[in-house]
Each structure stands twice: as structure tokens, then as C-alpha cells.
User: Fold Nucleoside diphosphate kinase from Novosphingobium lindaniclasticum LE124.
Amino acid sequence: MSVAFRRDGDEEHLEPKFEVPIPPGPNLVTAAGLALVKARIAALEEQVAALADETALNTAKRDLRYWKNRLTTAEVQPAPSGDRAMFGHRVRFTLSGKTREVRIVGHDEADPAKGDLAFTAPLARALLGTEVGDLIDFNGREEAIEVLSLA
Assistant:
């Protein structure tokens, strides 16, 4: 039989498993975000200790490497204060006639469905540095956002 038709195992034909991509830029976190990272690491360490399936174990180890990297690079930001929207603030505003509220957080604690936006998201970037009453251009529209409150 020709060498071209011989296969030692299925491993050589599997899709490669890549590391979880690290978001570019600084790893800014709130105090709650840091606690979230630590909780994920603890849960993954328990999972790694309990897993026997090699594929699941490798996936859990990969995820654990990601979260440990995020812990070592975390830059905890001070609690928001003052009259300007900053990292950690909850901002209430109107956009297209609808009142919305978002909290500006780090990448790993961002959950847009819950109103937690990463500080690099376009809406969060537009809101950073604003004050109550400010009218902000957004998405190609002038004065599209009005800031109502900061908490």
C-alpha cells in the first residue's frame, strides 16, 4: 500500500485548537470584574481536577490559561466618582427617543443583554467623559444621545 493512503491516527486530521483570543488593549476591570475572574478560575480549577475526558480536559485547561492571563493583567479601576461618565459608571440616556441605561465595564464582565458594555464598545466610548445634560453625536447623527444621569 502506498504511503499516501496510510494514516497513523485521526489526530492529524482534527481541527487545531487555538487559544482563546485576548482582547487588545489594557485589561481594565471593576472590583466586581476582578471577583468574577477569580471565581471563573476557581471553577475551572475544580473542573480540570474532575475531568477525565481528554478533549474536555484540554478545553478546560485552555480556558484556565485565558482566565489566569486575564487575572495577571487586570488593572482594577477606582470606583467612579465625579460629574463625568467614567469606567464603572451606570449611565442613563436617551437614544432615538428611548431611555436606556448601561454600565461601562471591562471586556470580561461585559454583557450587553444586561446593559454592561465594554469600555471599547462604540456606545461606551461615546459616553465616556460626558456630563448630565450633554448632547452627543453618535452613529453619524448629531445630538443623537442625551445624558440623563450618572450613578
